[in-house]
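[Discussion] Sanity-checking designs against the backbone

I'm trying to build intuition for which residues belong where. Below is a C-alpha cell string of 232 positions. I'd appreciate it if someone posts a full sequence so I can compare it with mine line by line.
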C-alpha cells in the first residue's frame, strides 16, 4: 500500500491549514513541494471539463442531425404510410434507423416513440413495446401517452398484469384533467380482465373523486357498480 502524505492529507481535510501556511509566507515553499500533485489534479479536472463540454456539443450536433433527418419519416407517419415511416423510402432513412443511430438524443428518442406507434398500429406488439420503452421525455403529455401505449400493446397480448403496470405509470405521471381519466379507465378495464375488481374500483374512485368534471365520470360510476357486484 502506498504511504500517505500526512501533511497533504491534513491540508485536504482541514482547509484552514492552507490559510495558515499562506499567511505565514510559506506559499512558495508549499507550492514547490506540491506542484506535481497540483498539476496532476488540475490536469484531471481540465480533462473532465473538456470531456463534458465535448459530450454536450456532440449530443447537440447529433440531435440536430437526427431532427433534420427525421423530417421525411414523420411526414410518412402522419400520412399513415407506416412501412415507409419505419423503414424509409430508399432515399430517406426510416424511424428505425434514426432511433437506432441517434438513440442518445432527444430526436432519436422521439423517433423511438413514432416507431413504437407504427408497430402498434401494424399489430407488431413486441416491437412496439421495445421502441416505446426506449422512449423517455420530460414532456407532460407524451411520456404518459407512451406508457399508456405500452399498456395497450400488453392488452393486445392479453398480458393484463403488465398492462396494469403501465396504465398505472401513465395515470400517475404528471396527471392532467384532460388525459388522466382516460388512462384510469384503461387501468380499470385491465384490472377487470385480470379479475382484480378491487383494483378496478380504486381506479374508478379516483376518477369520481378527483376528476368530477371529466367526460368519463358517468362511465366510471356505471362500471364501478358492475365491479362492485362482481367483487362480492
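Best answer:
Here's mine. Compare freely.
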Amino acid at each position: 500500500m502506498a504511504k500517505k502524505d500526512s501533511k497533504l492529507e491534513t491540508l485536504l481535510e482541514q482547509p484552514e491549514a492552507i490559510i495558515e501556511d499562506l499567511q505565514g509566507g510559506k506559499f512558495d515553499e508549499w507550492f514547490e513541494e506540491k506542484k506535481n500533485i497540483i498539476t496532476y489534479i488540475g490536469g484531471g479536472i481540465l480533462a473532465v471539463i473538456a470531456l463534458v463540454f465535448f459530450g454536450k456539443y456532440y449530443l447537440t450536433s447529433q440531435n440536430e442531425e437526427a431532427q433534420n433527418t427525421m423530417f421525411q419519416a414523420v411526414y410518412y407517419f402522419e400520412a399513415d404510410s407506416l412501412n415507409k415511416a419505419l423503414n424509409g423510402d430508399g432515399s430517406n432513412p426510416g424511424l428505425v434507423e434514426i432511433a437506432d443511430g441517434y438513440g442518445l438524443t432527444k430526436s432519436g428518442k422521439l423517433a423511438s416513440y413514432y416507431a413504437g406507434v407504427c408497430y402498434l398500429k401494424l399489430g407488431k406488439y413486441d416491437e412496439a413495446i421495445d421502441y416505446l420503452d426506449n422512449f423517455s421525455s420530460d414532456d407532460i403529455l407524451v411520456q404518459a401517452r407512451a406508457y399508456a401505449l405500452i399498456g395497450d400493446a400488453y392488452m393486445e397480448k392479453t398480458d393484463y398484469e403488465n398492462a396494469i403496470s403501465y396504465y398505472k405509470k401513465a395515470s400517475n405521471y404528471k396527471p392532467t384533467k384532460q388525459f388522466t381519466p382516460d388512462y384510469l379507465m384503461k387501468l380499470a378495464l385491465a384490472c377487470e380482465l385480470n379479475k382484480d375488481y378491487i383494483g378496478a374500483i380504486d381506479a374508478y374512485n379516483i376518477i369520481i373523486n378527483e376528476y368530477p368534471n371529466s367526460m368519463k365520470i358517468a362511465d366510471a360510476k356505471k362500471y364501478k357498480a358492475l365491479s362492485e357486484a362482481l367483487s362480492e
